[in-house]
Design a protein that fits this description.
alpha+beta, 5 helices, 9 strands, globular
Length: 203
């Protein structure tokens, strides 16, 4: 193989790698394009203020409908990094979050938490609080970083820590009709009960 041909192959491989890296996550809008969140996170329970009508935002190859302002302070019960699939392109992380008594260390440590397939599962030898309280005081939340600064901040969050998030509950849509919509309630369970959050601030 000639030296010129070898360099052509190396250059081609480099271009392929750069294109792949460029598609590893959706491009994000400038911060000035995002509306400001007026809610302040508190430790008692998540805050939500529905937007009427919902705002629309172009976000890389997706359209986001901003359904509600959202803010919470919660304990990170577990976190999972996703790298494969369309959802992972938009939302690389799921955080299983607990607030209220589920944020208390002596309560949280009695649960074993597992995340898989964009769901979260818990088990315990003996319930330290009523099951319904567990269900409405914890949730698996899909996190969309609004910019690279938020992406880096989310990447630094560890399980067991307390995190404050602000952003928007959203519905994501693709040009081919694909949709992914956030839950709008903390009291639902099962399929569709997870929050899909465009995170604008990590405090």
């Amino acid at each position: 193989m000639s030296l010129i041909r070898r360099w052509h192959l190396v250059l081609l491989a480099l271009i392929v790698v750069l294109l792949w890296m460029g598609r590893s996550h959706s491009p994000v809008p400038e911060s000035s394009e995002l509306p400001q969140v007026s809610l302040a996170p508190v430790s008692a329970e998540p805050l939500q203020q529905n937007l009427t009508p919902p705002a629309e935002l172009e976000f890389g190859q997706y359209s986001l409908r901003l359904l509600a302002e959202f803010a919470l302070e919660a304990r990170v019960l577990a976190r999972e990094r996703y790298r494969m699939g369309r959802e992972a392109d938009l939302s690389p992380w799921d955080f299983a979050l607990g607030w209220g008594r589920m944020a208390e260390p002596e309560i949280a440590r009695q649960f074993t938490i597992r995340q898989s397939g964009r769901w979260y599962y818990w088990r315990t030898e003996q319930l330290p609080i009523p099951q319904r309280e567990v269900e409405i005081s914890s949730a698996n939340m899909h996190l969309i970083p609004a910019n690279d600064q938020v992406r880096e901040a989310l990447d630094r969050v560890n399980s067991g820590s307390t995190v404050s998030l602000r952003g928007f509950l959203v519905e994501a849509r693709g040009e081919d009709g694909w949709r992914w919509r956030s839950s709008m309630s903390r009291e639902d369970t099962g399929d569709g009960a997870c929050e899909l959050i465009l995170v604008t601030d990590v405090l």
